[in-house]
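Minutes, methods subgroup
Present: GH (chair), OT, SY

1. OT presented the first of two proteins processed in the latest run. Sequence and structure tokens recorded below as shown on screen.
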Amino acid sequence: MKEDFKKFGAFVGIFLVAYYLPLSNPKVKEAILEAFRLLQWYAREHTLACVVPALFIAGAITTFLSQASVMRYLGPKANKLLAYSVASVSGCVLAVCSCSVLPMFAGIYSLGAGLGPATAFLYSGPAINILAIFLSARVLGFDIGVARAVGAILFAFVIGMLMAIIFRREEKEKADAALHMPEPTGSERTLWKTACYFLCMILFLVFSDWFNPGIATVTLQDGTEMKVHVRYETKDTLTLQSYDEGREITSEVKTYQRSEIKNITPVPSLTLSIYHIRWYLAGLMLLAVIVMVGSWFSREEINQWMEATWDFTKMLVPLLYGGVFVVGFISVFIPEKQVALWVGDNSALSNLVASVVGAFFYFATLTEIPITEALMKLGMVKGPALALLLAGPALSLPSMLVIRSVMGTKKTLVFVSLVVVMATITGIIFGYSV
């Protein structure tokens, strides 16, 4: 009955939006177009390369990892230092955006991982991105890079521990219930076979979702040549952020039709070189997975894996797509120039605004750096910039919707609040110290 009321509320909300949306308003038309543009970019750039592999990994976690193993290393009664270290390290080695981490978080949490280690993993995956931290130091300043690295690592531990403390009663009940569960049946596969299988699955995700730096030289049909950062691409358009003559990024962001662009030449880099061969590397990993599955897994196990993957797909994908669409729609009404006006000093309000905007906006891997750089050109100071970097990559409206479906409204609100409050306080302290 409760689920039916939720669905009814969603139907009513969609009906009211469709009934009253002022389609003749130019701003609303622009917002609808931007929503579909962002949704198409997400479908083209992130679904097949990012979300789909993560869903298969999540299904594999619940199918092939024993609950006893998860409880031993990540359960509520596991050694705290070991549990949070495993969660943080396993999250940060992925170097992917939040939409990849979400299905895996759902997988380990459903297997019995403690709330603290699970949320530490949830935060660390997109936030403790080694490449992003190095680029933050190089592009935004060494002090911001160091502060982001230290802040993100501490956040993973502190947020996880606070979540475990706040919900300690529920965690104790969860641990007690796990003690009375029957022992899982042993697997016919040895540990090294399972480890190789998961390693290749994760490497496939890392390579398929490898980041394109997006720095390129664009030549328009009229002969104009400019250095740009490609924000995102759709089937028909490219949204570009230009550089000035001093080779520093500007706040100017424009969307061009592909027909307006004569040529686009990426600026060479090691990251780009790997990006060009990512599908060959991912293909090798996929081939290895197929061979291992065919050799080591029974048909019944494969069917269970597919069923678990489909269950996660039904639960997570509609929320991700819906959240991305809403973010695209809202972004038109809150342009970056307006945000920059709100974060021009190091007050508590400015840092709070930066944290909240970062928490709700969707950042793909590393895109937070040119966006923050543009905001700093428009007047954002360093304190709010750090707050944005600490809250933004780890959270987004799509991720909030998914997290709520996994661990409930109350825990989601507390998790989001902890991220926003800690990012705000850290931004204030950092702003006054530099």
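2. SY then presented the second protein from the same run.
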Amino acid sequence: MRIEKIQQLLQESGKDAIIFKNRENKKYFGSLGGSGIYLVVTPSSQVQFFDGRYRQEIKDLTNGFENFEVPQGSYLPKIFEWLQQQGIKQLAIEPNGLSIQEYRAFSEEFAVEIWSHQLQEIRAIKSAEEIQLIRNACALTDEIFTELVPEIKIGMPENELGALIHYLSLKKGASAMAFEPIVASGPRSALPHGRPTERAFEQGDFITIDFGIVLNGYQSDMTRTVMLGEADNELQTIYQVVKEAQQAASDFIREGVTGQEVDAVARKIITEAGYGDYFSHGLGHGIGMGGDVPILNPKSQMVLKENMVMSVEPGIYLPGVGGVRIEDDVVIQNGIGVALNHTTKELVSVGECYV
């Protein structure tokens, strides 16, 4: 069980308990993700503190926990009371769950240590079940994209394509979007995080489409850049550079290399092509329930291990001209990287007139 991993870590570290408030961490350890739920784990117990909004869900959707219902807004006094009754003095907390006010309150009562890499490493190594769930999410993402592409037309607003991504994703079984989809066309494709606007697609546009879904609690994340009709020669050139960099970095992924080394493979290709200044972000991030590692960027010293899953998404962004990003999710299995997305990475030309 996942909870046993954290209990073993508590024993090894000499900590008496850890408090979880971060949504993804709570869900990872089998609790509910709601804002009115605090998860407390000790070496021998796991306890959910919750308010009345979650009374039925706690019963229906979780098991193996002690449960304490508290009046809404009075979580901390009840948690402090329970911790003190257990004789707890050494407390671990997450870096991204509790508020600063809550951190101060815990620090006044207990010896507090922030656990970051400890939790990241537990979640980074995916089980066979988790990998299959991510694989399923990626397969559905491929399917959604396949249906999406024929709908792209000259004159269609970015907003409409964004809405269609939402619609197809939910229609086909996703429970939510992993993040707000990116649809950036023409000169706006030079914006790495260009959210959809009212801009209508024009002949010759490059259109960057970046979206992910949540399916059975696990996420996907895929980016493709398509061409509307015939695009500018320089855009077609940078497409091929990005495609080469993305494939080379994906092929380099293996157990034992660092995130920095993988990032350097893609960055070298883009830099040698003369576009190094226009690759303005890290190469990738962990894939899972959200907030996962490893991180692939110029500073990442994290060593990649079997069953880690990560995105690989180099890009080139030319201000006033346009940009390209191509992204797959990659898992390390049998020591090497395996792409989970199967949508073509060849440059696809789409679009007739919008009606």
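Chair's summary of item 2: The mean pLDDT is 94.
Next meeting: continue with the remaining queue.
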